[in-house]
Amino acid sequence: MPRVSARPTLPEIDHQLHSAGERGADALFRRGEEVVRRLTDPAELRSLVEQVLADETRLARIAARSYYHANNFLKVVLMGGAGDTWKLRLHVWHPQPAGATLKQEDVHSHRWDFTTAIVLGKYHAREFGIAPGEEYHHYNYLPVGDSRSFSLVSRGPEQLRTVFDATLPMGTVYHLDHRVLHSISQADTEPVASVVMQGVPVRDATDVYRTTRIGDEPTTENAVHRPSSALLAKELVQFLSWI
Question: For residue 139, which of 223, 213, 42, 41 has the smallest C-alpha distance?
Answer without folding.
Answer: 213
